[in-house]
Amino acid sequence: MSDAHRDAEATRVVRAGLPPEEAYAPPLPGPVFAAHYHLPGDVDGAPYTYGRDGNPTWTGLERAVAELEGAAEAVAFASGMGAMSAVLFTWLRPGDVAVLPSDGYNLLASLRQRLEDFGVTVRTAPTPGDAQRELLAGARLLWIESPSNPGLDVCDIRALADAAHAHGALVAVDNTLATPLGQRPLALGADLSVASGTKALTGHGDVLLGYVACRDAGLAAQVRGWRKTVGAIPGPMEAWLAHRSLATLEVRTARQAENALAVAEALRDHPEVTAVRHPGLPGDPAHALAARQMSRFGCVVSCTLEDREFAERFLAGLRLVGEATSFGSVRSTAERRGRWGGDAVPEGFVRLSVGVEDAGDLVADLRSALGAARRGELS
Prior knowledge:
Number of helices: 11
Number of strands: 12
Distance between the termini: 41 Å
GO biological process, one term: cysteine biosynthetic process via cystathionine
Keywords: Lyase, Pyridoxal phosphate
Protein name: homocysteine desulfhydrase
Pfam family, one: Cys_Met_Meta_PP
Number of domains: 2
Order of helices and strands: HHEHEHEEHEEEHHHEHEHEEEH
EC number: 4.4.1.2
């Protein structure tokens, strides 16, 4: 990414979704807490009617997300799972076929089971090699996750979207790991860009949120109808915190991407570590394709240690990196991913979420913890 482009993005995210300037008003209005609104007369065309249908604080955030994703409209949800469920259950009916990644976010397995319980046929294939392409005949919806979580594999979004559309399928992309500053799925041909705003979008580990960014207003209306029916609405405080956090999205994700590459390079060269993955790492199996469709490579690095016990000693020995799930926070975290089950990873597989700390300090912390793990130390 050129410096000029990065500067332009930094300016864009600082102002995304803000209302027109008004004398003596705050640049970002505070959260609106309302279960109902004054509603005289006919409700047709009323901008706000009831608290489950809309909220001015959501509106500001949704406008900002739509601008960043290059979408016609965006719809905010209480969580990433709320957003994912809205897409899958809005368009899929008994007898339909959905194509999902077999190596995606582990709760996709729960959604797959529910879809199958409702009579939807679910086909799965791994992310690398565009393997989902072979399963598209007769499909109603293709779900892509690129980069995948936790394996960090990448697929060709444009090629898969073109193939899916040729079969009449709708295309949704989980853009959580990349963020809209790292990847624009709609520009690559997808119909829907879905993300957990809990992660890097908000970036402070204090908000649960999700969104669906839609290519056209008709798709957004259907997603919004699902949200109203099931009540998967974000709180106004969460929506306001998310919108506030967007102002630093560019500087946070730029620093995290730089730090993640430094961490990946250090781990790649360490004798205790194998199978280091990061899309920005030259030589990574996903790097060439990622470089064509991503403008930055995210904050997540994965690697494999000797076994479960070694990994647990390593995590216990970290001082700057906290042991926690999720990713995208300004504070670095790591976890042994196998503790949750559901991911096809070795027992010593570690997923790191790299924050905005000093890169040298992070690398020193990781090396120290690896040394302590080799010596059998456990704090």
